[in-house]
Amino acid sequence: MKMNKIGNAEIHVDDQTLVCPVYEGTEGERAVDIRKLRKETGLITYDPGFVNTGSCASDITFIDGEKGILRYRGYDVADLAENCEFIEVAYLLINGSLPTVAQKARYSSLLNKHSMIHEDMREFFIHYPDRSHPMAILSAMAVSLSSFYPEMGENHTEDVDMKVTRLISKLRTIAAFSYKKSIGDPAVYPRHGLKYCENFLNMMFSSPVNKNPYNAVMIEALNKLLIIHADHEQNCSASVVRGVGSAGANLYASISAGICALWGPLHGGANQQVIEMLEAIHRDGGDVDKVIEKAKNKRSPFRLMGFGHRVYKSYDPRAKIAKALCEKVIASTEKIDPLLDIAQELEAKALADPYFIERGLYPNVDFYTGLTYREMGIPTDMFTVMFAIGRLPGWIAQWMEMQKDHDSRIARPRQVYTGPNARKVVPIEKRK
Ligand code: CMC
Fold it and tell me: Which of the four CATH numbers 2.60.210.10, 2.20.28.60, 3.40.640.10, 3.10.310.30 does domain 4-69 have?
């Protein structure tokens, strides 16, 4: 987390000049250090949505939104998706380097060892209403882990490795159990002989009457999908995880909050919204032009879901991987999915439309991941859960990095107050 000082910037306020150091990261991103701004000038910055604000320095993930680059710890996401399994990438994000054969074997065995959840936790599932959204269950279960495994909730326990490995393994089990509960099927327990992704598919799709209804294409697709979800620097949910953690809250509470942030339709919840949008277009006779016009209409709150990104102003590299994967999974099922045709037509038309071109709006990760999950038989309301399972190592890495960062302070932005000036309480009988 070392930035190099490359010069100074001056901020002139009335007759005062504040000299602020300018730092540069390893990929040339430059930042003005305004930490003394308020103390020296009385001013604060106004930056809704933190569009121009660097909240931390980080060694984990690099994005160049103009060039469409995404790297985890220096490795291109496409390289990782092509050559690694998800658990190797999880290990990379959390530990900083890819595992050796021996490290991977130990990691796999830890993941297997800690895949069960406390039997009493299963009781929770029984009492959720049938129509509960699995993201609500996932978030509640994540924070509940801190009461079932209190030693895991302490921030300063020795074996962080153990703690985070348990979390990665158990969240997957919780996700699969919540799905089984939602369809009224008995839970399928994790199995030691299976690798991480296959174990998940087994817990999701096997039943007493149908063993292993998944195939190698699905296992490969799941590995790649989780890899492209695995981290995305200071996005909304990662910032929430860091923000909650900055108050000293334990890892489980912080992750639970991150899950809630991810659920939002402008963030990870967009993958569910994309499918719902494509289904609506299909039901409506497939009129793609109408939807594009609606998305461009400033009087309508409607947005083209799965399009646009705060950072990418070119094609999201994750969307490229997801698109290819989606086509491969669909080809393997030998089914025809009309939603794929609609998605491709929508993409082609939006990319040729001046509104989207001028604003740099391209398909983002959620545009094709939802379709791929759907082809794999994962129900729509589980899509964001899949995103959460993938994003978990990123959240953990961000949380751990923050714990070690000497510059880290409790997240506490300022505001510009615009409410009433000081006034006195009028006795209730005299109020109008
Ligand atoms: N459809 C139509 N117009 C859009 C869209 C869209 N999907 N996205 C942005 N715009 C317009 C927006 O109206 C604005 O226009 P104008 O300059 O005329 O006011 C301009 O593009 C810039 O948009 P913004 O809202 O200022 O950009 P932002 O960086 O604050 O928001 C975003 C980024 C992802 C929330 C937004 O693009 C969006 O709502 N997209 C749809 C939801 C979505 O797919 N979210 C998933 C994001 S990727 C995965 C993840 O983060 O988890």
Answer: 2.20.28.60
